[in-house]
């Protein structure tokens, strides 16, 4: 039996439209979804008719983060680093459009994209600290985009925030009403101009990936196997407060 792809592909006047289509787990970053998305990005880079990539989603969630039910802790952090690196090194710009919720690793995916827009239906939260974890791997793209004081607040508290705040702190580039103008600008730019301009814009993120990714993957694996993380994830599944909540 052939498994349906978790990322749908379409083409719209020079834009490769990639749609996360795994609503059963809120577009969580499973190994299968990461593989499908990486394949789609590779195909977009090879296609001379593609000027840029638009990453969107089905359902009410842009991306819920890691899929622990499907993959456990295993190779998840390393696979996510590989996806972030693929987006950063792609010769073509990647634009994300969030019409729904983004949590944990989903915010890393959003931040890895060169441009991100969101609607008023979107909400955002770095939920890791409430589960006994930390935003280890995703801190690489997030800290490259977000105001440091805001990142410190939301990393530590796990508070939910809206699109207006996401734009204010730099996690999101603009409201979704700006998307048409953004895509028009990308269609008007030369392939060489886009590739070289993206290389300039992503230099600090690529350097951070080269220097810090391995350590953060190790941190993530250590935290996921801790007693506090086990309690945090049990509490989440059981819809109760963890033992440390005051």
From TrEMBL:
<dbReference type="InterPro" id="IPR051683">
    <property type="entry name" value="Enoyl-CoA_Hydratase/Isomerase"/>
</dbReference>
<dbReference type="InterPro" id="IPR014748">
    <property type="entry name" value="Enoyl-CoA_hydra_C"/>
</dbReference>
<dbReference type="Pfam" id="PF00378">
    <property type="entry name" value="ECH_1"/>
</dbReference>
<dbReference type="GO" id="GO:0003824">
    <property type="term" value="F:catalytic activity"/>
</dbReference>
<dbReference type="InterPro" id="IPR029045">
    <property type="entry name" value="ClpP/crotonase-like_dom_sf"/>
</dbReference>
<dbReference type="InterPro" id="IPR001753">
    <property type="entry name" value="Enoyl-CoA_hydra/iso"/>
</dbReference>
<comment type="similarity">
    <text>Belongs to the enoyl-CoA hydratase/isomerase family.</text>
</comment>
<protein>
    <submittedName>
        <fullName>Enoyl-CoA hydratase</fullName>
    </submittedName>
</protein>
